[in-house]
Specification:
The protein has 662 residues and is of the alpha/beta class. It contains 21 helices and 33 strands. It binds shikimate-3-phosphate and phosphoenolpyruvate. Its EC number is 2.5.1.19, 2.7.4.25.
Length: 662
């Protein structure tokens, strides 16, 4: 079961190394070439994801002998023939599987059906079918003309003159022909003429490169004419290693830049692609470099490390993305952090990929607060200032790249929830594990404890010492209660109270609370009436939910110290340091008594003590968010410690944690 959504904490840095999973484009090409070739091929570094699984299982259904173990596979080539004369093949949403397989099967002829997920049935394939029909291939559309599902029948192959294929919708149509047609070039040249401007050219270069590895040298004139010479034969190279995926690399390369914006990051290195890569998407790193990123290239790695000296932000500008359609999506995210608008051009193919990516990008970027303009084949993204970011739930449209791209939004000033994170399985099932491993969340120190344990004063002193923000979560309940009393909202009107809580324009500065231009002292909210009302509304789940989001929104760089009762258990379960602060009931009663007296409130120690015991009992026994230490909390008993000593103990715990992280 994959989760419905994934909450990403705001990030303050990144650093480390990622061993990239194999390239999707190379994996699926190599699998097909190995199946079509003469001889046995041992493949290493193969990608294990939805897209390669559909290719592998299709080849098995077609009678190709293959063994797979992790990222290695052994394929016994069929020397140009698929043994199974008929098959029903599910292609998921893998363009790199359905298009080349359609060409290979149609040229052989048989009784085959190719289909996929609903979106696959909206992705065009008509240009490829038209090209194949020029050879006498029998291909029918089961539904809408021009789209899968396809039914392939017996072929009466003939070759009379050049074959033409359109290149301006997807380069995969040309790739499909180039991969399959060597089987028909034994006796005569096969010439392919490309109509319209070929898009995504570097992917055709991958095709040509891998064909060479399998013994076929295609000659090309510009990007319009390709000749597969007579006598061509696909022969296994024996062993072939798949590079890491350059498109998947783009998210981490971006993280290596964005993670340094708060100067808390370290270099991020992707391993498995480098300056010798055959994938066009490594050009993403060059684009980043042009925009001001600091990039290092190795033979088998690329590393980013923030911005080039002297720069404060990435540059904006216009970027032609014709050659890097997939990695271009990542540029739409880095654009949010630039110093000027970024316009991505020549991205018309986005409209017919996993989803209409121009529409999806524009819609989801707008949820973050960004100003976005778009046209048929372009997108302009205006950068976001820190105070313009909005927290959002990002829809991912069953598009792996939407999910991976928007993980980068957590370097902004917002809480990001990614819907259907499992969709990354199309090309990168372990993406979020790798992303969490190399990113560093904005730190939170959660200080929970019973009433009068001194957590408020300690939290604010710790925050001041570290330069972090401070959140007194108890105050939020009291403020909501105070606002409800003032506005006459009934204390049992859950929906109205939740609405009030969700939109409290509150901030904390210089030890005071600011709400709607009014400034308070925490003591002003400690009246009996507000206290009673706060305790009533704190028991309402809708109010707790609303305040949950509000409390989490205080987690912003450079860090947060949050005090309350459920900070470490409920609100910030991933806090880097959790302290559960206690003191004996007698000493807490004495502290509270002294506080009351010093504020000029008459008090009797015995009564204060009794009230405190009552409050403890209520807090530990209540149904929602009962007071208890988190399993991983440090227990700190301050009965015999002064305030200064307690603060110093918390700071020492924090320093120990920080050293471990570094
Ligand atoms: O040939 C390939 O491996 C690919 C070509 C590109 O598609 P288009 O040619 O449709 O742009 C790219 O977007 C896709 O992810 C993989
Ligand atoms: C467009 C993509 O996939 P496909 O190979 O299915 O075309 C992609 O991975 O971004």
């Amino acid at each position: 079961m994959t989760p419905e959504f994934l909450d990403l904490p705001p990030l303050i840095g990144a650093g480390g190394r990622v061993a990239l999973p194999g390239s999707k484009s190379i994996s699926n090409r190599v699998l097909l070439l190995a199946a079509l070739a003469e001889g046995q091929t041992e493949i290493t570094g193969l990608l294990d994801s939805d897209d390669t699984r559909v290719m592998l299982s299709a080849l098995q259904s077609l009678g190709i002998e293959l063994k797979r173990e992790g990222s290695a596979a052994l394929v016994q080539g069929g020397a140009g023939r698929f043994p199974a004369p008929s098959a029903d093949l599910f292609m998921g949403n893998a363009g790199t599987a359905i298009r080349p397989l359609t060409a290979a099967l149609a040229l052989q002829g048989g009784d085959y059906r190719l289909h996929g997920v609903p979106r696959m049935h909206e992705r065009p394939i008509g240009d490829l079918v038209d090209a194949l029909r020029q050879f006498g291939c029998a291909i029918d559309y089961e539904g809408q003309a021009g789209y899968p599902p396809l039914c392939i029948g017996a072929s009466q192959f003939r070759l009379s003159g050049d074959v033409s294929v359109r290149g301006d919708v997807s380069s995969q149509f040309l790739t499909a022909l180039l991969l399959a047609l060597p089987l028909k070039a034994a006796e005569q040249d096969v010439v392919i003429a490309v109509q319209g401007e070929l898009i995504s050219k570097p992917y055709v270069e991958i095709t040509l490169n891998l064909l060479r590895r399998f013994g076929v040298s295609v000659q090309r004139t510009g990007w319009e004419r390709f000749v597969i010479p007579a006598g061509s034969r696909l022969r296994s190279p024996g062993r072939i290693a798949v590079e890491g995926d350059a498109s998947s690399a783009s998210y981490f390369l971006a993280a290596g830049v964005l993670g340094q914006l708060h100067r808390r990051g370290a270099p991020v290195r992707v391993e498995g692609v480098g300056r010798d890569s055959i994938q066009g998407d490594v050009a993403f790193a060059r684009v980043l470099e042009d925009l001001g990123a600091s990039v290092r290239w190795g033979d088998d790695f690329i590393e980013t490390d923030g911005l080039q000296p002297g720069l404060k932000a990435l540059r904006g500008g216009e970027i032609d993305c014709l050659a890097i359609p997939d990695a271009a999506m990542t540029l739409a995210m880095t654009a949010l952090f630039a110093d000027a608008p970024t316009t991505l051009t020549a991205i018309g193919s986005w409209r017919v990929k996993e989803t209409d990516r121009i529409h999806a990008m524009a819609t989801e970027l707008a949820k973050l607060g960004a100003q976005v303009e778009s046209g048929t084949d372009w997108l302009r993204i205006h950068p976001l200032q820190p105070d313009q970011w909005r927290s959002a739930t990002i829809a991912t449209y069953d598009d792996h790249r939407m999910a991976m791209c928007f993980s980068l939004a957590s370097f902004g000033h917002a809480d990001i929830r990614i819907a259907d994170p499992g969709c990354v399985a199309k090309t990168y099932p372990g993406y979020f594990q790798d992303f969490f491993r190399i990113t560093r969340p904005v730190p939170v120190i959660a200080i929970d404890g019973p009433t009068a344990s001194g957590k408020g004063s300690i939290a604010s002193a710790v925050a001041e010492a570290l330069g972090f923000d401070c959140l007194d979560s108890g105050v939020l309940y009291r403020l909501t209660a105070w606002a409800a009393l003032r506005q006459g909202v009934a204390l049992d009107d859950s929906a109205a109270l939740a609405q009030l809580a969700a939109t409290l324009p509150v901030s904390f500065a210089a030890g005071r609370i600011h709400l709607n231009g009014q400034s308070f002292d925490a003591a002003q909210l400690r009246t009996e009436a507000v206290g009673q009302a706060a305790s009533t509304i704190a028991a309402l789940p809708a109010v707790r939910d609303a305040l949950f989001a509000l409390q989490r929104s205080f987690r912003r760089a450079p860090g947060l110290v949050a005090d309350g009762r459920d900070m470490g258990t409920v609100v910030f379960p991933d806090a880097q340091l959790k302290v559960f602060l206690t003191a004996s009931a007698a000493s807490r009663a004495e502290r509270r008594y002294k506080q009351l007296i010093s504020q000029g409130n008459p008090a009797i120690l015995g009564d204060v003590f009794a009230e405190l015991l009552e409050r403890d009992a209520r807090d530990t026994q209540r149904a929602v968010a009962a007071l208890k230490p988190a399993a991983d909390a440090e227990l700190l008993d301050s009965t015999d410690l002064s305030l200064e000593q307690t603060v110093e103990t918390v700071l020492a715990l924090w320093r120990r944690h920080d050293v471990q992280v570094a």
